[in-house]
């Protein structure tokens, strides 16, 4: 049996076709979300036969996870500026870049609209693992420098940054400016009270 043109193209071109399929997956995900995403539509967008996709990614969750992981794990390394505040500012800038790119938009849409899907939880866990090293290194160095008070949860601080940036970008529909990031990082790094004596206990 002579393979059809898309199948032959996949066999000859190899890795470029993988990239085209993953790009098409992100485009479809951004357009219709996870639940409505269909492999045949991804295949049509990428110009391959759907069996080419199923051979490498047997389930839809495998394909979507691969597409998001390829772009989400972008090689960003933990900044080492010498201060926690400056490090957090660099992380915040990177968050804006990722959030407003095709991967970030696809991910936010998927999580906000379909967070109850079991597959989504698996994908989010996989994506989170690719980013765990950065805050771990930042806060470890800050502790060595004596910048952190006892008991500070670095993951909570990073979550505050990400949550505020996502709220501005997707809830309010505005791109956080450098001044916005300065203000956000100040709150995350220094808090909002004038002195430690005013903190008290709840």
Classify the secondary structure makeup into a structural class: mainly alpha
CATH 4th-level superfamily of the largest domain: Tetracycline Repressor, domain 2
Low-confidence stretches: 1-13, 197-202
> Given the structure, what is the number of helices?
11
Q: Give the N-terminus to C-terminus distance in angstroms.
A: 74 Å
The general outline is elongated
Number of domains: 2
Mean of pLDDT: 83
Number of strands: 0
> What value does the Rg take, in angstroms?
21 Å
CATH topology of the largest domain: Tetracycline Repressor, domain 2
Let me know the largest β-sheet.
none
Helical fraction equals over 70%
Question: What's the helix-strand series?
Answer: HHHHHHHHHHH
Reading off the top of the CATH hierarchy, the class of the largest domain is best stated as Mainly Alpha
């Amino acid at each position: 049996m002579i393979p059809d043109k898309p199948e032959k193209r996949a066999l000859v071109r190899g890795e470029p076709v993988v990239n085209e399929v993953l790009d098409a997956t992100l485009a479809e995900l951004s357009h219709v979300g996870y639940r409505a995403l269909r492999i045949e539509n991804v295949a049509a967008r990428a110009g391959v036969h759907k069996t080419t996709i199923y051979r490498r990614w047997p389930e839809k969750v495998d394909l979507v996870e691969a597409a998001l992981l390829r772009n989400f794990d972008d090689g960003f390394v933990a900044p080492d500026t010498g201060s926690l505040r400056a490090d957090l500012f660099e992380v915040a800038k990177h968050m804006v870049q990722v959030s407003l790119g095709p991967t970030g938009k696809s991910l936010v849409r998927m999580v906000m609209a379909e967070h109850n899907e079991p597959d989504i939880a698996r994908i989010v866990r996989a994506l989170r693992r690719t980013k765990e090293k950065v805050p771990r290194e930042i806060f470890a160095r800050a502790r060595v420098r004596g910048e952190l008070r006892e008991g500070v949860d670095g993951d909570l601080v990073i979550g505050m940054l990400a949550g505020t940036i996502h709220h501005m970008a997707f809830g309010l529909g505005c791109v956080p400016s450098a001044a916005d990031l300065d203000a956000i990082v100040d709150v995350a790094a220094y808090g909002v009270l004038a002195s430690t004596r005013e903190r008290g206990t709840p």
